[in-house]
Design goal:
With 202 residues, this protein is of the alpha+beta class. Helix content is 35%, strand content 19%. It is built from 7 helices and 10 strands. A hairpin with a 4-residue loop joins strand 3 and strand 4.
Length: 202
């Protein structure tokens, strides 16, 4: 990996808010997926990611590494969670539907578990309260490891999904007055209202 990749790593860690092994894996997975598909980071919604982390576990930091590196973000709506509890994701080039799945290979599992950082995390200490040198020891362990020790990069395949065009525009809800995206307005009588003001669940 080159100096540009290292800058991406540091920028991603700053975005994430602390330095940890799972976010580093996410950065490396994102870089590998972009390289494999021969595409650049998405400034718009050209790419789509399906991330398998799910919720409520310590490895979810992986997702921020993937988001920052690929440009697939929840804000742009070009990423979604498939809740399998895995450090894995699929990146799709929407122009061609070419896709690749990249997953974490647990070669470093024991070194990570035995690290001072993870011992303190297990004791309930917040990641950003752990000494910087202990954070960086784990970052460097994962970043400097050979790619084959950290990642499993699948074969490129054709993603079977179809893409719905982006719906543009907002309108104030007729009841509460809050701006609501067209796709989320519901018709009640003759009025266009937001979901919370309607009787609909979604």
């Amino acid at each position: 990996m080159d100096d540009n990749d290292k800058q991406i790593l540091f920028d991603a860690l700053r975005f994430h808010g602390h330095k940890c092994w799972a976010s580093v894996v996410g950065v490396r997975a994102g870089i590998a997926a972009l390289r494999t598909l021969e595409v650049k980071r998405a400034g718009g919604t050209q790419l789509y990611a399906i991330i398998e982390t799910g919720e409520d576990h310590s490895g979810m930091c992986f997702g921020d590494g993937v988001q920052y590196t690929t440009g697939c973000t929840f804000g742009k709506g070009n990423i979604r969670k498939q809740p399998y509890g895995k450090l894995a994701f699929t990146l799709i080039d929407k122009n061609t539907n070419r896709a690749v799945r990249v997953s974490y290979k647990p070669t470093l599992r024991k070194q990570i578990a035995d690290s001072a950082f993870m011992q303190k995390r297990a004791a309930g200490i917040m990641a950003d309260e752990i000494p910087e040198e202990e954070q960086m020891a784990l970052v460097n362990l994962v970043w400097d490891a050979p790619e084959s020790d950290v990642l499993i990069i699948g074969d490129v395949f054709q993603y079977p999904g179809e893409w719905i065009p982006e719906v543009m525009g907002f309108e104030p809800c007729a009841i509460c007055g809050e701006m609501t995206a067209f796709a989320y307005l519901r018709v009640v009588g003759k009025a266009h209202v937001c979901i919370p003001c309607s009787s609909y669940d979604r």
